[in-house]
């Protein structure tokens, strides 16, 4: 033994560590390593601290030198236990003439030996050492010291073993390991590459928790990696392409990182590359598109050229992968290309502040059309056994994004595929939990290693709603959708989604996509009401839908921030009531009266009289609640006014109900208080339509209008039909 070893043994004696700290429990069976067996015997027979420590040093060397199996490692643990390495790790004073890390190095070596057993790696006595082990990663010392290097290696071995246990990542994160690993990597000291590898594993296992505990340190690593990526001229840039997606934060990516990442990707993708070099770059670009949209791409000529290149490369990759039957599809790469195509679709349809110029948009739409054709070709080959595969879900998603903006091209191919899309959406709707799992698998496939964000909704039907809304306007596609049972499926879907917004559910935690989906369903039903009224009358699912609309609107119109959804529900319900006017549910029942009272509230509160400086007369203006959404609302409002007008002669109880609500009187009062020049002709026509039908339907309504100066108001606004109606007895 060296002098350092003996001195260390003497120091252990002063600390009061006796032979009883070891618990010999050695099996006397034959060992496959005679040297180790001899050392273990010496440990068992040690008479004092010096002999015990010497035996431990020999055992440690044997462990490092030999090929030790799990059974033998367990025998070592049974002989040594945790007490001795615990004291080694916490002893603060080193023997004279020895570096201060000698005792800790031996303790870490013993733990590393124990941690090779998964059961021991999850032992509380190992887990409570995580904070101590984490400090060793950033401890200063001679970088050329072999003992220190060995201790660093053993520390990483311990932490990696813990990370491999089921609850290990959570313990490491709570113990400060993520910050320590970040600092070790940024320090670029010995073992920094092991720090990066362990960081990658922890982020893949528990991204959200890692960022919550160590966001500043992880952002510092991201800045370093991004800068290295931007500067790299060798093959390391392709390796960084694979690492960087894991280090993008769930919140905002720092602008300097985005700048470096875009510059690095531009250099890579602008070069002639093999597929193994190009594919990681496309996946990194897709991850950035998913996280930041197009915000990471600079404005101007260079940015537009880069975006066009991205989308072009993605479309080429999709066509190469999907057009040839029998070719093995690299699903993760193609899914990443889908994300880049979505970015292209968004930019091509953006009217303001688009990165692309019109000629570029025209060119990219043509290129994307060919790629979408390849997607349709692929989906036509999908059999029932593949419908639950995540790549099919991703392919339906990109097709849905395309159909949301463009249905005129590829019309024949789309119509041929519609039966499959209806069946696919129905299958996933009926197995909603699997649909949500598929969405997460798609995200894992190419975009993010963890749970997807709101841009990856968990059901296929929601992806298809915007496209189906366009298609129900056209005769051919609409007939196919009706034949395949899409209206019934949409009714069920609407009712299911509506339940999420009903009382008893916390609507504040619902993603915006739920309400947008409900609005889009309403638009589809509106199309069917106008183009296929016979379907509304004969399909029982629409009776159930009407009942839900009647029950829901009274509370909906009272809720702040949900005016647009209320407008959709009110207008759809009014149009359907015209077609279902003979239904018992609409014959003055409490539900029907409540619905029409709420519809009157929605229609009557849209405009107010507003005083203007320097003018004696007020002007007709939008009420504050309607101003911000009127651009999206006005078509529904006018349609609702027209539908209400049509309901009055069909429902005899409606005119008296409107009179009790004082809507006709207040409407005439409003018109009488503002300048006629401030009321647009289309508003005059809408108001006159309602007033005329109410006056024709009920004598008391006519009398109330006359008492409200109805004839004079009609004359001022040139409402000839209303004037004539009020002149009658």
Automatic annotation (TrEMBL):
GO terms under cellular component: dendrite
Pfam families registered for this protein in UniProt: Neurochondrin
GO BP terms in the entry: neuron projection development; regulation of neuronal synaptic plasticity
Entries under InterPro entries matching the protein: ARM-type_fold (IPR016024), Neurochondrin (IPR008709)
SUPFAM superfamilies attached to this UniProt entry: ARM repeat
Domain of life according to the entry: Eukaryota
Recorded family membership: Belongs to the neurochondrin family.
Protein name (database record): Neurochondrin
Native source species: Ovis ammon polii
């Amino acid at each position: 033994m060296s002098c350092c070893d003996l001195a260390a043994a003497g120091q252990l004696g002063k600390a009061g560590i006796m032979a009883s700290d070891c618990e010999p429990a050695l099996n006397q069976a034959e060992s496959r390593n005679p040297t180790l067996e001899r050392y273990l015997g010496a440990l068992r027979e040690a008479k004092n601290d010096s002999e015990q420590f010497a035996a431990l040093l020999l055992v440690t060397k044997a462990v490092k030198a030999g090929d030790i199996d799990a059974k033998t490692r367990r025998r070592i643990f049974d002989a040594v236990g945790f007490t001795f390495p615990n004291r080694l790790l916490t002893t603060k004073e080193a023997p004279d003439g020895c570096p201060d890390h000698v005792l800790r190095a031996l303790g870490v070596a013993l733990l590393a030996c124990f941690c090779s057993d998964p059961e021991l790696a999850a032992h509380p006595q190992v887990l409570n050492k995580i904070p101590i082990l984490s400090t060793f990663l950033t401890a200063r010392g001679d970088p050329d010291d072999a003992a220190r290097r060995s201790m660093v290696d053993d520390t990483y071995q311990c932490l990696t073993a813990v990370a491999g246990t089921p609850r290990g990542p959570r313990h490491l994160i709570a113990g400060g390991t993520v910050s320590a690993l970040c600092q070790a990597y940024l320090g670029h000291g010995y073992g920094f590459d092991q720090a990066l590898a362990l960081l990658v594993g922890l982020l893949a296992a528990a991204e959200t928790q890692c960022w919550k505990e160590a966001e500043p340190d992880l952002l510092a690593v991201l800045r370093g990696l991004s800068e290295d990526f931007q500067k790299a001229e060798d093959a390391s840039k392709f390796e960084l392409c694979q690492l960087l997606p894991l280090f993008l934060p769930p919140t905002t990516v720092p602008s300097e990182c985005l700048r470096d990442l875009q510059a690095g990707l531009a250099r890579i993708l602008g070069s002639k590359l093999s597929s193994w070099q190009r594919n990681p770059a496309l996946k990194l670009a897709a991850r950035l598109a998913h996280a930041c949209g197009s915000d990471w791409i600079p404005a101007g000529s260079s940015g537009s050229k880069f975006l066009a290149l991205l989308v072009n490369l993605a479309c080429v990759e999709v066509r190469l992968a999907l057009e040839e039957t029998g070719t093995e599809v690299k699903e993760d790469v193609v899914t990443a290309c889908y994300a880049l195509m979505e970015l292209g679709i968004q930019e091509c349809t953006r009217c303001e502040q688009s990165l692309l110029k019109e000629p570029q948009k025209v060119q990219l739409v043509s290129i994307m059309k060919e790629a979408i054709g390849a997607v349709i070709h692929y989906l036509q080959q999908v059999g029932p056994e593949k419908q639950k595969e995540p790549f099919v879900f991703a392919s339906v998603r990109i097709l849905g994004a395309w159909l949301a903006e463009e249905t005129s091209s590829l019309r024949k191919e789309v119509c041929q595929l519609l039966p499959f899309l209806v069946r696919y959406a129905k299958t996933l709707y009926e197995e909603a939990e699997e649909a949500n799992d598929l969405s997460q698998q798609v995200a894992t496939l190419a975009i993010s290693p963890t749970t997807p964000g709101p841009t990856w909704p968990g059901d296929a039907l929601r992806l298809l709603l915007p496209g189906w809304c366009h298609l129900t306007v056209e005769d051919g596609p609409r007939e196919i959708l009706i034949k395949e049972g899409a209206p019934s499926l949409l009714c069920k879907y609407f009712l299911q989604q509506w339940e999420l917004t009903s009382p008893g559910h916390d609507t504040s935690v619902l993603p915006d996509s739920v309400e947008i989906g409900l609005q889009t369903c309403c638009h589809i039903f509106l199309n069917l009401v106008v183009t296929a009224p016979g379907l509304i009358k004969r399909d029982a699912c629409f009776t159930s839908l009407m009942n839900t609309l009647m029950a829901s609107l009274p509370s909906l119109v009272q809720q702040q921030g949900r005016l647009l959804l209320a407008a959709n529900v009110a207008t759809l319900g009014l149009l359907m009531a015209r077609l279902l006017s003979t239904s018992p549910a609409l014959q003055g029942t409490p539900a029907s009266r409540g619905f029409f009272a709420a519809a009157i509230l929605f229609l009557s509160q849209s405009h107010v009289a507003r005083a203007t400086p320097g003018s004696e007369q007020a002007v007709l203006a939008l009420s504050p609640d309607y101003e911000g959404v009127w651009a999206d609302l006005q078509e529904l409002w006018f349609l609702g006014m027209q539908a209400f007008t049509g309901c009055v002669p069909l429902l005899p109880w409606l005119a008296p109900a409107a009179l009790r609500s004082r809507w006709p009187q207040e409407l005439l009062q409003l018109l009488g208080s503002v300048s006629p020049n401030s009321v647009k002709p289309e508003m005059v026509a809408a108001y006159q339509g309602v007033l005329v039908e109410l006056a024709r339907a009920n004598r008391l309504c006519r009398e109330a209008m006359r008492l409200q100066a109805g004839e004079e108001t009609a004359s001022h606004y040139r409402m000839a039909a209303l004037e004539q109606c009020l002149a009658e007895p």
